Structures are given as structure tokens and as C-alpha cells.
Amino acid sequence: MIMKKFLTLLTFLCVTLFSCTTKTTRYTVPGIQAPYKSISGTFSGMQVAHSPDPLVALRWENPRWTDSLEVYVLTPARVIADNTENVSIKNNTSMTVNGACNLLFDFGRVSAAWFEFEAPEIDGEIEMSISEFNEPAVFNLGSQHPKKTAAPTRHGNTWRLELNKELYEGVRYAWIHIHSLNKPLDISSVRLVCQTKPTNYEGSFACSDTMLTRIWYTGAYTVKTNLLQDYFGAILMERSDRHSWTGDAHTSQAASMVAFGNFDFVKQNLRYTSTQYNGIASYSLYWILSLIDYYMYTGDKELLDEMLENACNKLDKAYEHYGDDANIVFYGWDERLGAGFENGNNTETRNAYKMLSIQTWSKFSQVMKKAGYVDIAGKYEQYANEKITLLGNIKDWNSNFGLHAAADAINASFLNEPEQNDLIKRTFSDRQQRLSYSPFNQYFIIQALTKAGLYNEALNTIDDCWGGQIRYGATTFFEVFRPSWNDISAPNDAPVNNQCGYTSLTHPWSAGVTKWLSEEILGVKPTRAGFQSYLFKPHLSSKVSWIKGKVPTLNGTIEVSGDMNTGKFSLTVPPNTTADVAIPKAGYTIGDIRFNKEAIHKTGEDEEFVYYTGFTPGKYSIKVNYQGHPKVWNDEPFVYHNRTILEDTDTQGNWHGKYGSKGYVLCNYDNKGNRTQLPDYISDLKFTRNANTNWATATEDIRALQSADNGTTRHIGAIYTQDPNVCMQTITVDLSGKVDQPYQLSLYFVDWDRQERRSALEVFDLNTKELLMPVYMVRNYEEGKYVTFTVDRPVRIRVDHVRGSNAALSALFFD
Questions:
Q1: Which of 79, 106, 635, 781 has the fewest Cβ atoms nearer than 10 Å?
Q2: How does pLDDT run across 133-190, given as a tens digit for each residue?
Q3: pLDDT surpasses 60 at 10
Q4: Which has the closest alpha carbon to 384: 411, 408, 354?
């Protein structure tokens, strides 16, 4: 209740006592030993207003993967307090407290950090909290300290919150809870001590769409916050799964190469993860794709040779796995992919895995051919061709492909034009449905949109997924996300937790978009290993009219720019490389094109680009004579099947005559369990992942539900999520049957024991697993609340935990 009171005060009564810009300093606190030395670089790089990284301009001299982590101090951007009469603020890091209060510190961005302050002897009771979002965090069993609130550890006059042996957590918000004081307390030097891996921004990105620029830098910062001493981390917040997951590393390494050029660290992580399996078949193939990415960016044949046997073993294993009975285990958190570990072995994941296998065999074969390994190239080309031939012998072989399988099929680059057009029409035409719940999987979807030439659709999707996260308040990208979170929550509110468990708000597997923006919008990608040759092909439009940026290579930095408004482009070709150039038309008519004021012979032209080849090292100024007008940007609609949801807080347990005219389910109603009367259009109802409780029988509490027979007695029970068990933060209700006409479904929620529950509701088509409605937040249901919406098909209802002890559902009513 203390936290509820505090949050209410923040909402209605709080006073921002001090606000300023977050500052970084070196860690020089006397009397306490930091685990790492203070930052050793200098702020001599380029400041970037759109980057959330406070060290974006810091430059280390020749950083290496073997460098130790370093620390720096971050001060709060603002301080908020309840019981303001008990607090005297000197500045954002110092204050005097005279009595009970809660102090909230917002540091402006998530950091890999621990929280501490200075104070003399404390005569009273205090605790400290941290979180990535604006309420103290709680995580699952298995964490060293699941509740991110504890009494501080004292080191002289330094008071530090120590929640795990490595100290660091994901921290944006921190609290000092003063429960009681016997004498005034002087607090000073409130700070985060942040750890960082020495890593310079060697790449850059900017364009006319500032949201895309923010997305690029947020992806880069997400990776950087997770760089650990010896390997790429996977999850910043300690919730029992701090591993270098091989699949997660694929997208984070991809982003890291274009942002930082820290190729030696990527090389080390490829070695580190080469023998890891994680029990996930697809992750071994993502490791192969990472090896290919690394080789194309560096030309490091030594590592390719070192990893050759390992890579072949993984590809051979995929050949064994390929089939309709493959054990996939996990392919992503999206409902259509089996909701993570819930049902990984479904048709969509197996189809997607087949396509991923063909793609990986084909790409590896191409690399082997270029590297001179003709026999190995032939083996994996044969693997791919064999499976492609088998598919071709099956009529309508891709007819049951969903979004993710379709994306992997397009990325495998073997579809004929009718097959590809069919998949595009069926799976990519709906802006809302082509969003995956996992930004990790969304990376492969935008790759497929690119291959299909759907750049407008790709940019719309990027804005929905990654732009939506930034609008939510993200300074690092999330493990999972739905755009409708922005409709049901204020910025930086606690996120929805569900099949992924407790949601990580700093998850580098979501950073693949940074590489996509460098390769597709900035337009720089290698065409031969190590950038011996590369293509500069910016995709400009009325939405993105200019670009400017850098891509690091081992031969030097490629610098490019392009502006359709002025017709000016530029290109720097480093030593030992050659470049091909594609000048975008974007709907304009082009008069002439000059390179360093000279007209040269073009090598090709199509509807979208004019092509030139063979640019040797040097700097090139390009002038394009644009005439006419650009293509009009296609801003697609974002449509849900149903948006109408109603709430009723008046009826409470008196449901007779208002709900349930066609049927009902009273969950764990009494010692006989569920009381169920299903309508004729529902053939089956199935609860999964739930725990069960009966809260009260024969009670007079009006929140309890009337009995179905006479309505004179009241009982109440619930199904509820199994928090804090790992990945048990959700329950599902599957309603099967033949629905001839729409009906009204009402869910009854009651926070019976007043545990400050806050829950989210998702509704899916039971057959396709497509999301039918925006995510809906069920708040403040202590007195009982009905949530009502219209259904016209078999559905899956997912009730998700957000805050409180768990999420609980007490009844369903059909009308």
C-alpha cells in the first residue's frame, strides 16, 4: 500500500522539486573501491542530439575487446518527492530529509549501473529501489534478488543498493524510501555508477526523418549497454537469464559492426558462442548468418577457416532437423510462432525453420564459393536445391505460410514471381498484422520487405515497432512491444509481462534495425568480402529526402551523403576498396549526373535508380539534376478488427439479468471447481498456464458472484498467473466452436485480496493467432470490473500480468 500511495501522490499531488540535464562525470568517490577504473577516454568525438548515449562523444584511444570495463557517474535529470514538507532540496543530488518520504530520481535513460549516495550515519529505516520503468521493478524466481528493492549496503559514508554479485542492473529510475527517521538525514552525491565497454562510435547515421536517426542511435546504445567484459550480453536486467544467447547475438553483432566497427569483439563473441546451442535449433543458423555478416564486413578468412568445421556441423544438423516433425522449441515470442516456449513446434515455426535452413545453406554456399571452397559450396547448394525441388513438387506448398514463414521464404531468395507476389498479398498487405511481437523477428520481416521492394511498407513498420517504442519513452529497445501499449499506458509506465516472462526494456536482440538503416537507407553494404567492393545505393523518398553517415571498415571509413532537395551527393572510397553507385530517382526525372563536375558513362538504369560502377579510392562530389516531383509517400492505414471495449464497475457480483444470457464460466467458484454453462456456439473452452484459487464461499461481499441457480449465495474464485515463476506471467483462454453471428463476451476481474493488480488483455484469432484488438489495460479492479467486447470467431484470450502479485480472472459471460 505504501507504493500505491506514493504513485497516487505522484499522479495527483507530486512536485518536481528539482530538474536539470543529466550529467556524466568520472568516478572519484573516496573511501570505496569501484570494480573497474574510471572512464579513460576524452570527449573529443561528435555530439549527437538524437542519441540517448551520454558517452556518444567519448573517444578511447584504440579500444580493443580485451579492454576492461570502465565506470562513470550519471546524475539525475530530475527528482520527485512525496511528503514534500519532509524534504529540503539543495540540488538534484543533495537534500535534507526530516521525516518519512519517498524520493524518485529519473536519470533520463537506461544505463548498466548501480545506485548509491553519500550520507553519514542513518538513524532510521530506509530502502532503495531501481527500475527500467517508473515503478520499482520485480522479476522472476532465479534472480539473485527478484525484488529490486532492498536495504542499502554501507561502505563508509557510501550507501549502495547491491542486488547481485555483478552489481549492475538496467536502471533509469531509482528511489530512496525513507520509512522512518529519528533525526534529520543529509543525503548527497546521489548517482548511478554506470559501467561501459570502451567502444567508439565509428559509424553514424542522420536523415531528414529524425525518428529514424533516433532509432539508429537507440539501437546502437542498446547494444553498447549490454557489452560485457568478454562477450556480448543478452539481457541487461538481472532476471536469471544473463547469457550470450547465440540467436540474440546475431542482430546485436550486426548493429555493433555498423555503429562501432568493433570487429575484434564480434570475432571474439563468434568464438565464444560457437559451441553454445541454447537448445534452440534456429539459433545455430543465426550463428551461421552472423559468421557470414562478419566475413562480408571484414574479409577475415582466418576466422572463417577456424570456424569451418563448426559451421558445417551446424548446417548438417539443420539438414537432419528439416521436416514436418522438427523439434523447434522456440522461434520467437509472437503468438503465431507458438508464443515462445509455449508451443514452439507448430506449423508456422516449422515452415519458417525450413525457409531459414534453405536461406542459410544458400548464403553459406555463396560465401564458400567466393572463398575458394568449391566442394563445400556444392554440398550446401545441393542441400538447398534438394529442398527447393521437393517444395516445388507440392501443390500450393506455401498456402499455410504465415507472416514469419513468408518472411523467411522471401529472404531465402528462391521464390518465383507468382509465389512471392502471393505471399506479399497474403501476409504483408496488412500494416497491423505484419508486426511481430518481437523486434528481433521484425528485423527479418523488414529484410523481406526490402527484398520485395516494399520500402514504404518497411519504413511504416519500422515506425510502428521501433518508433513506437521511442514514443513509449524508450532510450533502449525492448524485448517485446505492441504499438497499442502507447494507447493504454503513459510513457515509461510498467510494460506488459506475458509469455516472455517479465519484459526486458533493454534487450539488444531488438537492435537489428540499426544495421538495416545503414545498409538500406544510408545505402552502404559490401558486395565482396571485407568491403573489397561495396554498393552505395541510398533509398530516398518524399519521406526520407536526405541522408548522411559513415560505415566503418578495416580499410577505413566510408562516408556518404545525399540530398534530393539540392541534388548533391558525396562519397568517400577508402583505400583497397572499390564502389558502385546507384543514384535514386524516387519519382523524379533526372536530367544529368556529374561526378567531380564530369559526366561519366552510366552502366545501367531502371525505374528506381541510375547505376555507375568501378569507383576507385578517393572522394567524389556528385551533382544530380532532379526535375519534377517525388513519389507521394504511401501512409498505410493501421486497422484492428475491433477497437470497441466497454467497462462496467457498477454491477460487481450481481450479474443476473445483465450478463450471461447465453452462458457463463465461473472460475473456481466453489469446492466443485468451475461452474460452466457454455452457449451452443462454443464447443470447447480451455484454460492454460493458470493456477487456481477459491477466494471465498458463502460470503456477503458484493464483489463475489451470485450463484447461477438462485442468485442468493455468493462465491468467488479465479484463475491467475503463476508469478514469479519463469515465463509464467500470463494465462490463456481458448474458445473453440462455430460462430454464426457476433456475440458479446464479458470478462469479470476482481482484485479480491487488494494486491494492487494491474493486468493486460489481448485477443487473438484462435486459428491464425493474429491480433484482433489493441492491447487493453485492466486497472483498479479491486471492487470488481467487467470488460466487454464483441467476438465473431473462435478466439484466444490472453490475460497478462503488469503489476501486483499476479493477474487474475474470475469469470466469463456470453451474451
A1: 635
A2: 999 999 999 999 999 999 999 999 999 999 999 999 999 999 999 999 999 999 999 9
A3: no
A4: 354
Residue-wise pLDDT tens digits, 447-486: 999 999 999 999 999 999 999 999 999 999 999 999 999 9
Burial code (b: 16+ CB inside 10 Å, e: under 16) for 439-462 equals bbbbbbbbbbbbebebbbbbbbbb
Dihedral sign, Cα of residue 436, residue 441, residue 446, residue 452: negative
CA 716 from chain centre, in angstroms, equals 38
Beta bridge partner(s), residue 731: 799
Mean pLDDT, the chain, rounded, equals 94
**Bigger pLDDT: 713 vs 633:** 713
Query: What is the DSSP code string of 237-277?
Result: S-SS-----HHHHHHHHHHHHHHH--HHHHHHHHHHHTT--
| Bridge partners (DSSP) listed for residue 117 | 159
In this model, does residue 807 exceed pLDDT 70?
Answer: yes
Is 443 in a helix, a strand, or coil?
helix
CA distance 476 to 134: 15
pLDDT at residue 2 is higher than 80: no
Beta-bridge partner residues of 762: 798
Radius of gyration of the chain (CA): 28
Structural contact between residues 240 and 141, judged by C-beta atoms closer than 8 angstroms: yes
Residue 258 exposed, middle or buried by CB count within 10 Å (0-12, 13-18, 19+): buried
Residue pLDDT, tens place only, 368-388: 999 999 999 999 999 999 999
Cell, residue 343: 508451443
Residue 14 pLDDT more than 70? Answer: no
What predicted TM-score, i.e. pTM, was given to this entire model? Answer: 0.95
* Cβ neighbour number for residue 646 with a 10 Å cutoff: 11
Would you list the DSSP string of 455-469? Answer: HHHHHHHHIIIIIHH
Q: Which of 66, 293, 23 is nearest to 199 (CA)?
A: 66
For residue 759, how many C-alpha atoms fall within 13 Å in the half-sphere facing its CB? 31
Cα separation, 423 vs 401, in Å, equals 8
> Which residues are 470's β-sheet partners?
none
Q: Which residues pair with 590 in a beta bridge?
A: 626
Burial environment of residue 412 by CB neighbours within 10 A (0 to 12, 13 to 18, 19 or more): buried
* Rounded distance between C-alpha atoms, residue 312 and residue 274, angstroms: 12
Rounded alpha-carbon distances, angstroms, from residue 8 to 32, 82, 135, 736, 757: 37, 10, 12, 41, 15
Cα distance between residue 459 and residue 765, in whole Å: 26
Q: Which of 584, 590, 594, 556 is nearest to 572 (CA)?
A: 556
- C-alpha cell, 454: 516494399
Contact in structure between 540 and 587 (CB atoms under 8 Å): no
Q: For residue 316, how many C-alpha atoms fall within 13 Å in the half-sphere facing its CB?
A: 8
